[in-house]
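User: Here's a protein and a ligand (flavin-adenine dinucleotide). What would the complex look like?
Assistant: Let me lay out the input and then the predicted complex.
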Amino acid sequence: MGLSRSFFLALSRSRNLRTLMTKWRFARKAARRFVAGETADEAIAVAQALAGRGIMAILDHLGENVSTPAEATAATDAYIALIDAIAAQGTWTSVDGGPPHLAVKLTQLGLDLSNAVAEANLARIAARARPLRIVVAVDMESTAYVDRTLAVLQAVHAEFDNVSAVVQSYLRRNDDDLKALCEAGFTIRLVKGAYQEPAELAYPDKADVDAAYVRQARHMLQSWRGHAVYAQFGTQDPRMIEAARQAAAQENVPPQAFEFQMLHGVRRDLQEKLASEGLRVRVYVPYGREWYPYFMRRLAERPANVWFILKATLRA
Ligand SMILES: Cc1cc2nc3c(=O)[nH]c(=O)nc-3n(C[C@H](O)[C@H](O)[C@H](O)COP(=O)(O)OP(=O)(O)OC[C@H]3O[C@@H](n4cnc5c(N)ncnc54)[C@H](O)[C@@H]3O)c2cc1C
């Protein structure tokens, strides 16, 4: 197939195409399928609409791989402003889960500069978020960053337990990483993994990724009893969702101890179905101007969407 996963993942790293696409009105309009808008207010409005449907939100101020301390500080400031804007709303108690969570990427907070810069910025965000019961989820990026991300997370978690982790089941190493995070009592989002990785590091075969996902989902649920692990299943795959539900029932884990997370713009029907069945559902809502790599990773996950989005954007 011409429009393959690796084709879009290669494009997602192209700086030239990124510059071109972000200036192009048509592309901006197309990206809106997955992105709530450019401002925090637009993202908060989406979170409020979700709350009205009994669904929680996690807000992501888009951006990654900054190269100067000033950019890292600006990204951190944007999150602080977002927390303040969430707090100013004060209407989140209508949903069981409280105010929206935040998703951050450490390369947006300066991980390419040093661990120390990213750690200080993450701690600043976590400190502001904690009194408001806002969890700060650290998204997991490509394998170049996994060790450093885990090191920063462990350091910040020792002081702020409102930071949470992500495990990508496509990585061969991840049974070990998951075990360590569970033992430390982290809240963990389990995803399949969205980056292009070599076969030595990540399973090339989808069946192996799925098997790892199911195994790791059960391990997280089993860790609820001993370590109070709160499991978050980040997937649109009905088979993974069913496997997690079955494992929760078999392990006697109550529905308040785990949640399903899906992306804004994907499978809204499934989000509503799960919520109507009494399960906790949280939607990942990205916003901001740095949508290009995020958008391309979404196309990579489902190249068939390209035609769908092209048609919808032309019609709009
Ligand atoms: C909330 C959330 C947070 C994430 N955070 C990270 C992260 O921090 N790091 C990271 O590397 N990755 C992250 N991801 C992306 C993740 O790694 C996968 O790339 C992505 O979720 C696609 O995998 P999948 O489990 O949904 O199913 P896939 O294996 O892609 O697809 C399996 C089946 O799921 C259904 N499906 C999947 N996608 C769609 C769609 N777009 N529309 C309709 N049906 C669909 C279809 O039935 C499909 O056959 C995140 C994903 C989610 C949902």
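Summary: The chain is about 50% helix and 15% strand.
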